[in-house]
Amino acid sequence: MVIELMKSHASVRDYKEKQLTREEVSELVEAAQHAATSHFVQAYSIVWVTDPEKRKKLGELSKNPKQMEGAGAVFLMCADYNRLKHAGEMQNQSIVFDQAENLIVAVTDVGLMAQNLALAAESKGYGICYIGGVRNDMQAISDLVGLPEGVFPVYGLTVGVPNEANEVKPRLPVEAILHENEYDEAKYETLLPEYDQTLKNYYASRGSNQKSATWSEQMATFLRKPRREDIREVVAKKGYLFK
Fold this sequence. Notes:
By secondary structure, this protein is α+β, with helices and mostly antiparallel strands. It is built from 11 helices and 4 strands; from the N terminus they run ααβααβααβαβαααα.
């Protein structure tokens, strides 16, 4: 059942040596393409990184060497208005994509397509992991795989045969995310402490990498200062000017 598959997701960071074939990758990507896309622009591209040296360098730049070198397939999930520029030129038109709206559309398109790919992979028994670390050095990674104007990496996605099964990490309760008619922040006073305890119990009892931590502690630490402050400059160089 699809819903049960979705609820069983856990990130996989350790894979067996098996590499995905071209046929397997094509099947996953074709399924991914059937995600919803704003106004049918399909403002995304995938770079499948198979070259060992490029994968090694990608691991260094993203600070995820084990994932990038050990996965069965490594994908760079990219926002892409370059292809749309070519479509415009076919009609003797110059397209505009330097507004903030275009950036939102492209990133949303990438996210929907990537999640379709992830779900398709998991339906085949593969494990997956998103790699936000590709934003650690977006310009160098863009140069590594030759991304032109209008194209930038949003995240990586690794796929492969899991070396071990990971336990499912408990999410926030539905009540914390679902608001009816109006946004209700008052309920966080009760729900967040309860969720902190749920996650603390999970970390203490899981099979490996046990620790003592709560969700609010982790989020406060993670978000207490700016991160990846060069991103605005990099995407601006790609033509996304936030107009």
